[in-house]
DNA sequence: CAGGCGTGGGT
DNA sequence: TACCCAAGCCT
């Protein structure tokens, strides 16, 4: 096995010099702020999260503040961040935190993991970043860095493997686990990127197994590419945008005009309703859930 | 476990 | 210009 400090020390040093000043990383950020940021950052770039997160923290500074609102308001103020079911789940987190945890974001991994929208990554991230606990924080950035640095692969497997988890756990320092986690993530986000890694700027290029092997091209199974144009997802997005922008009941005719295919439109609308993102009212109109 | 789930910026 | 893909989760 490799010597963990060969990777840790240069990455931690690099982080000291290159960490972005993100509001949810500041010392005055609350656990709630960290939790909100983590949900918003799922599959979503930092630059798009920043303004929405800031507005949410002003509007709903505590879980109790959000829990007191309707879920529809959470969806409305999600704006165009994407994957709006996350807004519903965050609202569900707030309600569970108030109902079951005295209004305080839990600090325990297992408890966090039981909240809506919080999976393995987010539970580990919140426990680490909000409470300084020691967990393997395996997001797409960390997985890519470790695939390269340790396994000499350009990309990690499609699904997280036990081997990856073993590698990540072996690298956790006995002290400062949370700082280590955010440092590796930051390296993946800023330097060891998916498309065009900036190896020239990398603090571990001399120790990276993939770099040392001559950066061999990825030869594993094809990675899933996503289509969007013409899909139900796009249709749902169009419909929900109308509901978000209108305050109150939206006549069906106002939804009909944003998507031509009526079969697909009906299916998408039914999907939004069954997901809890929309409500049908009497008189053939719709709105965000109250 | 593979597929569904938004959106917009970088290359 | 067309992809590629960005701090995943749920079913």
UniProtKB/TrEMBL annotation:
Cofactor: [4Fe-4S] cluster
SUPFAM superfamilies in UniProt: DNA-glycosylase
Any GO BP annotation: base-excision repair
Domain HhH-GPD: 40-190
Family to which the UniProt record says this protein belongs: Belongs to the Nth/MutY family.
Keywords, comma-separated and alphabetical: 4Fe-4S, DNA damage, DNA repair, Glycosidase, Hydrolase, Iron, Iron-sulfur, Metal-binding
GO molecular function: 4 iron, 4 sulfur cluster binding; 8-oxo-7,8-dihydroguanine DNA N-glycosylase activity; adenine/guanine mispair binding; metal ion binding; oxidized purine DNA binding; purine-specific mismatch base pair DNA N-glycosylase activity
Catalytic activity field: Hydrolyzes free adenine bases from 7,8-dihydro-8-oxoguanine:adenine mismatched double-stranded DNA, leaving an apurinic site
PANTHER family: ADENINE DNA GLYCOSYLASE (PTHR42944)
Keyword presence, Transmembrane helix: no
Alphabetical list of InterPro entries matching this protein: DNA_glycosylase, Endonuclease-III-like_CS2, HhH-GPD_domain, HhH_base_excis_C, MIG/MutY
Domain of life: Bacteria
SMART domains per UniProt: ENDO3c
UniProt cross-references to PROSITE patterns, sorted A to Z: ENDONUCLEASE_III_2
Protein name (database record): Adenine DNA glycosylase
EC number(s) recorded for this UniProt protein: 3.2.2.31
Pfam short name (any one): HhH-GPD
Originating organism: Sinosporangium siamense
